[in-house]
Amino acid sequence: PKRPLAPYGIGKLTGEMYLRVLGETRDLKTTAFRFGNVFGARQDPSGDGGVIAIFISRLLRGQHLPIFGDGLHQRDYIHVEDVARAFIVATQERAHGTFNLSLGQGTTTLEVATLLCEATGESAAQIQHIDERPGDIRNSVLSPERFRARTTWGPQGDLAPGLASVVQWYRAQEDG
After folding, report:
1. Whole-angstrom distance, CA of residue 17 vs CA of residue 12
2. Amino acid 48: pLDDT
3. 153 and which of 63, 89, 146, 158 could share a cystine (Cβ 3.0–4.6 Å)?
4. pLDDT along the chain (176 residues), means of 10
5. What angle do CA 153, 45, 47 make, to 5 degrees?
6. Residue 114's pLDDT is what?
7. Any residues with CB less than 8 A from the CB of 5 and at least 6 apart, and which?
8. Pairing of strands 37-39, 77-79
C-alpha cells in the first residue's frame, strides 16, 4: 500500500510518481528502487540515520549503544554492494518498474546491536535503552521477490557476515 506516514516517505513516493508520469508522457522506460536500510563501508556515523555505522563507531570507541524503546523495532537491511549490483542488473537486464531492494527479513535493533557486539568483540552490556522516539515505525520489512523474479539479482549474503565486513572496514580506517 502507498500510504506514507512521514514526510520522508511522501518525498520518496513523489519521486516514484514523477518517474511514472515522465515515463508515460515521454515514452521512457524507468526504474525506481525502494531500499531497505542500506549499510556498508564509508557510511557516515555522525548523522541521525545509519544505525549500523553509528553503532560500529560507538562500539569501537568504547561507548554505549543507545537503543530507542524496547529495541524490538524491525528493519530490513541490505548491504550497499547488493544495491550497486541491483543497479547494474536493472540496466543490463532492462528491468523497468518499481522494485524493493532488501534481504526480505526483519531484524530488530537489539539483534543488530548483538551482532555488532559479537563482530567487534565488545560486550552486549554496552546497550542502553532510551525513550522511544515518537512516530517511529514499529516494523519495516520489504519483499525483494518481484525484482528477483524479473532478474538474476539476489542479495549475496546474510546480515551477520555483511556486518562483520563493515566492522573490518571501520577498524582498518582507525588503524590506517
Report:
1. 9
2. 74
3. 89
4. 84 93 92 95 87 94 93 96 97 95 96 95 86 88 96 92 95 84
5. 100
6. 94
7. 135, 137
8. parallel
Crossing angle (nearest 10°) for helices 51-60 and 109-120: 40
Considering the candidates 8, 18, 77, 170, report the single residue annotated as catalytic.
Answer: 8
Residues 116-127 as b/e (b if ≥16 CB within 10 A, e otherwise) read: bbebbebeeebb
d(CA 162, CA 171): 14
| Alpha-helix residue ranges (DSSP H) falling in 3-50 | 7-26
Question: Is 8 noted as a catalytic residue in this protein?
Answer: yes
Residue with cell 540515520: 49
Phi, psi of 92 (to 5 degrees): -65, -35
Retrieve residue 43's grid coordinates: 557510511
